[in-house]
Design brief:
Blueprint: H1 14-35, H2 50-60, H3 62-69, H4 72-75, E1 77-82, E2 85-90, H5 106-109, H6 120-124, H7 134-137, H8 151-160, H9 166-173, E3 220-223, E4 226-229, H10 232-235, H11 243-248, H12 254-258, E5 268-273, E6 300-303, E7 309-313, E8 317-319, E9 332-337, E10 345-359, H13 383-393, E11 402-412, H14 426-429, E12 468-469, E13 477-478
Parallel strand pairs: 5-10, 9-11
Antiparallel strand pairs: 1-2, 3-4, 5-6, 7-10, 8-9, 10-11, 12-13
Helix pairs in contact: 2-3
């Protein structure tokens, strides 16, 4: 019986399978050849520093240096729609996870910047010799930022330099924003696209750079004379055999069914309680060789196999900005999807909760100044000093009175795709065991709910068209149009 998530895609013929295998072999072979150019083997050392390696790279690739200095990875700025308006989002100046300010915490937050000596000055600078080429292009797997490498090791890394691999990208994009070693935000390792046991793709396959280090946020292709984006660029707009499932794609993002959970191979951060910092290390101990404890010494709550939260999404964001007043008795949304629009789709989000400081008089969140390095994040437990120092670092007044409130952050879940056979089934979302909060999505009830007392059971056939479901004193909800009540 075909799996509902795949729509029972037809199996390839023997000739098609042979052609596919040959194509995969040629792609893999060409990728292996291009991964480490032969010219790199002739590099002469020794190299005294990473900067010396970069200087050697720039001798042959000067255009790459100029491209990096104008790229998102260097400038840490990109165009977004924030709170209903187009805006330039600057990671250095803006609020990151839990309202932390990167500029005030360079030791923690700038470790993922692609400069040799991460600092706010480096981001503003235009010196290509400040670029850390190895962090993205070392394919030996031995480069570690901050570790002193010998000249012989640097020579070996330089000779191995090639196209970035997923391991290069995930050193920065997988951890949870500099809050601790091994603390993950997204699970890339189990993604069927990136896994060597799966498609064995690279990050550049979906985030192409056009040879200019631009690294697009989503793939786009022209298909049949019209542009297609995201999953449809490779899988078409109608990837399922069952037309009913293709109709779902009008309102439901592919990720909703094909990324059923996250934190499958490595526990992920789900909450951070500042009040518990430094108070739990002696209670919850980690066991060598096993997963870390549920609650860590810094007050981090970790989770595995976490079920996403589902919300309407049009690609824009509602973002808390510094100085915004809060309602302390309610959870403050630091980031979440914008209001529902006709083009919105239901998609999965990761969720992170926080218990953190706010100014009791001015009623805005307090951004702390963390310790520059080490396993302990807060410099002691004197919250008065932490609040005052943190606010002074980015020039917002502190009234001298503080308290604690709850925050929540929703982030789009795009990585962690499972094989088609493991995607969600119909009854994962419909019926008594649904994982969707239909009321939060604006529905009065499950659109597929049947009420036997009012009408006969709902029967689905390939040509039946959109199903209608009786409402309780309301017009019926059609599954293939927007719900009758707007999402708030």
């Amino acid at each position: 019986m075909p799996h509902p998530a795949t729509g029972g895609a037809a199996a390839p013929t023997a000739r098609q399978a042979a052609a596919m295998l040959l194509a995969l072999f040629l792609v893999a072979a060409s990728s292996a050849i291009a991964a480490t150019p032969a010219e790199h083997a002739t590099l002469q050392g020794p190299f005294a520093s990473v900067r010396a390696v970069t200087a050697a790279c720039l001798q042959c690739h000067p255009e790459a240096g100029a491209a990096i200095l104008s790229s998102v990875h260097w400038r840490w700025q990109r165009q977004r729609t924030i709170n209903g308006r187009p805006a330039i989002s600057a990671k250095l100046e803006g609020l990151t996870n839990f309202g932390i300010v990167a500029r005030s915490n360079p030791g923690r937050c700038l470790g993922c910047h692609v400069s040799i000596s991460p600092s706010p000055q480096a981001i503003a600078g235009k010196d290509p010799t400040d670029i850390d080429c190895l962090v993205c292009h070392d394919t030996s797997g031995t480069y570690r930022r901050g570790r002193k490498a010998t000249p012989a090791e640097l020579l070996r890394m330089a000779r191995s330099a090639g196209r970035p691999r997923p391991a290069n990208c995930t050193t920065c994009h997988s951890p949870s924003c500099g809050l601790g070693d091994g603390l993950q935000r997204v699970d890339f390792a189990s993604d069927i696209h990136l896994s060597p046991r799966g498609a064995g793709m690279s990050c550049q396959d979906c985030h192409p750079s056009d040879g200019r280090h631009r690294m697009a946020r989503r793939i786009s292709r022209v298909r049949d004379g019209r542009p297609t984006f995201g999953c449809a660029a490779c899988h078409t707009d109608s990837p399922h055999r069952q037309e009913r499932l293709n109709q779902h794609a009008e309102l439901i993002a592919c990720q909703s069914c094909h990324i059923p959970d996250y934190g499958r191979t490595t526990p992920v951060l789900v909450a951070w309680n500042w009040l518990l910092a430094g108070k739990t290390a002696g209670i919850f101990r980690s066991v060598p060789g096993r997963r870390p404890p549920l609650l860590t010494g810094n007050g981090f709550l970790l989770g595995s196999d976490v079920e996403p939260v589902y919300r309407w999404d049009d690609g824009s964001d509602q973002v808390y900005q510094r100085g915004d007043r809060i309602t302390p008795a309610r959870a403050t949304v630091l980031q979440g999807p914008g209001p529902r629009k006709p083009e919105s789709r239901i998609r999965p989000f990761t969720v992170q909760y926080g218990t953190q400081l706010y100014d009791a008089r001015y009623r805005y969140l307090i951004s702390p100044q963390l310790t520059a390095a080490g396993s302990t994040l807060f410099p002691g437990t004197d919250w008065e000093a932490i609040a005052r120092t943190g606010m002074n670092s980015f020039r917002l007044p502190y009234s001298g009175s503080h308290d604690f409130t709850v925050t929540v952050t929703y982030r789009r879940l795009d990585h962690g795709t499972v094989p088609a056979a493991q995607a969600l089934d119909c009854m994962d979302c419909h019926g008594a065991s649904t994982r969707l909060d239909w009321q939060a999505l604006g529905y009065e009830q499950d659109p597929w709910t049947d009420e036997p007392a009012q009408q006969a059971p709902l029967t689905l056939t390939p040509d039946a068209g959109p199903a209608t479901v009786p409402g309780k004193g309301l017009p019926p909800i059609r599954e293939t149009i927007l719900p009758v009540k707007p999402d708030r």
